[in-house]
Amino acid sequence: MGYKINNNCIGCGSCAKKCPENAIEGKIKARFEIDEFMCVECGNCFNTCKMGAITDPLGNTSPKKGKKQNESKSHIDPELCAGCKNCYLNCPMDAITIVKKGFLGGTYCRINPDLCSGCGTCIKNCITGAAIIE
Fold first, then answer.
1. Residue 119 is part of which domain span?
2. Helix (H, G, I), strand (E, B) or coil at 89
3. Which pLDDT tens digit goes with each residue over 78-128?
4. Are residues 60 and 81 in the same domain?
5. How far is CA 6 from the centre of its chain?
6. CATH value at residue 51
7. Do 60 and 117 share a domain, yes or no?
8. What is the DSSP letter of 48?
C-alpha cells in the first residue's frame, strides 16, 4: 500500500509537480491520482500537499496547511496584472474573479481571500509577477 490521494484533493497539482517519478496525474480542479506501480514512496507529495489530501502507507494524512486564519494568502497587484486570465482559469478554488478596470481600461484579476486556500497555483501561472503571497 503506497501513498493515496483522498477526497480533500482540490486539484491544484502541487503534488504532481513534486513527484520525481511522474506517478501523479490529473487535471486542474479535479482529483489527482497516484499510480501505485510508479510510486517510489519518496514522500514528496505528502510533504507538499497543503490540503491534507494525501495518505501515507501507514494511514497518516498529510498535514493540512491551507485555510488557516493567520496563513498568508495570494494577492494580485492590479497595476501589474495583464488580464491574461491564466490564474483565473487554473485556480482550483474558483477564488479569482475578473474585474473591469474602467470603461475603456481592460481587465485585471482579483483574489477573494475567503476562498483562497493558499495553494499558490495563481502564482505559478502568473506571467507578469502580479500574483504574490501577502
1. 74-133
2. helix
3. 999 999 999 999 888 889 999 998 777 789 999 998 888 778 889 889 999
4. no
5. 16
6. 3.30.70.20
7. no
8. H
